[in-house]
């Protein structure tokens, strides 16, 4: 049994883009069981742009699950954006999860936008000015929600979906100076707190596709400018229950929490 | 690559790169964070990929409007949207 996951992020839709993805999306149900959207769905977060997303990515014939990105927050219309997407059947995760039945296999998806802060040894700390403390607390709270959403699912396969990056590996190609604005190790730590099979993110347009968390979870940057196609498709081969337990042990043995 | 502007003249100011980068991000009719602005001897090069040809034109128009004295070279492509021909097996 294979679970087929299609994913793309950073499509930045507005009226000028509607229709560009649709020919490829019409073929999607033949090659994937679900489509995950890794944030920055709109150009700058208006309800009108969200309607473009709904037009382009709605009614696909497979479940569509999304997180928002920083662009989707810009105009402070997040509730309207979410309502518009969900009216079109696109489920938006914000520190929450969903379990889908994929031909008898329970696929659990936990999602959150994430935020910045940087990576171990080169990261921001909750110290100093109120603005700096608020910045780090924002990431920390989102990471806590993501970890909880991953751990609490009763499912056979876990996938984490974020906009910001959980590891620096998939940022290679971006200027190192801006890594703290592209992701946080706290997201990686949250992903490693559960037996996650795959972590998908966007945001880093000049990054690279592949990486792994310190706990061994495979990470893929599916930002549209990175994958250079309408979406990528990943085949997950769900392990038997015993094998899952073995993998968790193996991860724990390497010191991950 | 399209070359616009007068050419020659003084090299752009060091702060110009930052000004253009912020303009492209913060003007909401553009809202592009993925464009690299790099300084050459006598011009700036705008590099990256966008979701539509219209956006590429908007970027060029906005930069020329705000910095009419700066020679600008544009090397911005469209991101392809074809269906994938391969899948990644994760075992």
TrEMBL record, chain A:
Keywords: Hydrolase, Metal-binding. Pfam families: Metallophos (PF00149). The keyword Metal-binding applies. It comes from the Bacteria. Residues 3-205 form the Calcineurin-like phosphoesterase domain. This is Metallophosphoesterase. It comes from Plantactinospora endophytica.
Automatic annotation (TrEMBL), chain B:
This is BON domain-containing protein. It comes from Plantactinospora endophytica.
